[in-house]
Amino acid sequence: MNKEILELISNKYDFKNKSAEEIIQLGINDITTAVKELGNEPSDFFSKDKCNSYLETDEIGREMYLFKSVKSTNTVAKFLSRNVSNGTVILSETQTRGRGRKGTEYQSPKGGIWLSIILKPDVTPSKAPLLTLATAVAVTRTLDHFNIHAEIKWPNDILIHDKKVCGILTESIARFNNLESVIIGVGINSEIDINEFPEEIRDCSIALSDVVDGDINPEKGTAYFFKEFEFIYNKFLEGDIGFIFDEWRKYNHTIGKFVEIQQPLGKVINGYAVGIDQEGALVIEKADHTLVKVVSGRCRLLD
Ligand code: BTN
């Protein structure tokens, strides 16, 4: 049992006044139910009913759990993944330890959209990273729909005016070569005062409220994102990878630029980004004209 999940429901079950034996006797199903019940309590921040009224999807967002505060929606999603339907969404008003890529902490104050989508695609684990690119496309297409021009910085940052507005963290649950679930975590700085972010990320972050005139309707925006996501997810399932790549290139902010990639273990690659391959790896031409493929890393644009 995950410690974060126990902490989440500890107040509900009053764990402090229970013996370890009594807690064990609650059983895994009760804990799953308790987590789901917590995700069904009313919220003044986001209305599930309102979101539902805009929803045009078959599966994505049809089952939704909305929390006031969790450490990370991805963790809750992982915990519930076996006991929910494909396309279930976990959303939280705030995250106390939102997770970014490479083990970083992701700032998730109230006013942002912090959500995870649970998917159960019948594909091999090696295909899962493509879902990150697909999600980035779904986010930019959604913003486009609301007349907000955004771009994708490889592999998964969504930028407005060169500043990050959204991050994506894809995590897979696989047993041997069997992909059980994929968790798509999406964090959008919707109505946030970026001045409250830590200094080191303040200058490179932006919120939708910085670029939108008038009120933001988070339920409408989220429901539309689910529609775009389902559309692109179906392309993924149909194997129409070409469509995803074409769309990704359309919004890309990386190809055709000089980049520096910091890889795990401190390796740094500099060069000109010439494209992405069919697995989503970035292809870089180095100064000596050799081509290298980079599967992951932190990307800094040099021009
Ligand atoms: C990144 O840009 O480093 C990825 C950030 C992903 C953040 C989202 S917010 C919802 C979901 N839950 C998390 O803990 N992380 C993702």
Please provide a written account of the structure.
The chain is of the alpha+beta class. It is about 30% helix and about 25% strand. The chain has 8 helices and 14 strands. It has helices spanning about 5-15, 20-40, 50-55, 75-80, 130-145, 200, 220-240, 240-250; strands spanning about 65-70, 90-95, 100, 105, 115-120, 150-155, 155-160, 165-175, 180-190, 260, 270-275, 280-285, 290-295, 300. Helix 1 packs across helix 2. The longest helix has 21 residues, at about 220-240. The termini are far apart. The model has no long low-confidence stretch (mean pLDDT about 90). Biotin binds near residues 99 and 101.
Question: Could you outline the blueprint of secondary structure elements for this entry?
Answer:
Layout: H1 3-13, H2 20-38, H3 48-54, E1 64-70, H4 73-80, E2 88-95, E3 98-99, E4 105-106, E5 113-119, H5 130-145, E6 151-153, E7 157-160, E8 163-175, E9 178-188, H6 199-202, H7 218-238, H8 241-250, E10 258-262, E11 268-276, E12 282-285, E13 291-294, E14 298-301
Parallel strand pairs: 1-2
Antiparallel strand pairs: 2-5, 3-4, 5-9, 6-7, 7-8, 8-9, 10-11, 10-14, 11-12, 12-13
Helix pairs in contact: 1-2, 3-7, 5-7, 5-8
